[in-house]
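hey so i finally got around to running the thing on that chain from the lab meeting. sorry it took forever, my laptop kept dying and i had to restart like 3 times. anyway pasting the input first so we r on the same page abt which one it is
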Amino acid sequence: MAVTQQLPYPILRARLFGARCLTLLTDDELWDQIGVRIAFTTRNGGVSAAPYESLNLGTHVGDDPVSVAQNRASVLEAIGAPAERVVVPDQVHGSELVEINSSAPAAFEYAQERACAGADGLIVTCSGVSALLCFADCVPVIIVAPDGHFAVVHAGWRGVMAHIAPKALLQLLQTSDNPHDAHYLRACNIYIGPHICASCFETSEDLAHQFADTFTLSCTPDDRHVNLTEALRISLIEAGADPARIVDAGLCTKEHVDAFYSYRAEDGVCGRHGAIAYKKES
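ok and heres what got predicted. didnt touch it at all, straight out
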């Protein structure tokens, strides 16, 4: 069956959510049309103490686990998602994707176990389950298909080189009613969240040359810097995405450390903001 649902073109706007007035970057038109809430969090509005202040969502950085749990609960409450059905993978800078296709206890538990074994992307094809990934300079990507299936992806430079975002896009196609429908790919909305910008992402000359060879010279403004956004756009468009349906938040985490965590700006001691998506239950 061909794609019939037409999503609104993607847009990211900052809005206050929940009792704690959390600032989230989101797309309200998407929520209104198909009941999928996508959001990129900031570092503000939580309970974590320095150096993780305040809405740290990462459990692996040395923060008080009780504070992290409270922060995650605040985000889930803000977007109206159930606290007991959120999957947060153990991110390993790879290209492994885990699919969650049911909120039933056994299927959900199996997906959780696979995600905790190491994954950098979640594909969700059911309602009632949230996917949360954590960031501090790497690129958060959320892909939403016209049937309401979605992917949340962690794309550090290794993930970008491994084509994790287009891999997630193509895996979403395989979950559709017609896995051979190229129109499905072009109908997907792709949201790129706050991350380190090209001028702040200094690399070795060797890595910059690898990016130029893989994604063209447009990804390397010079011999020591890499534009991860451009590399992602190129790889996604080559996979079949519509350029008009790719939206970038346009915010650099290193330049806006007041609003986001930055591993580079904070010398490796910091919390993690998040990318989260959820489809409400009928």
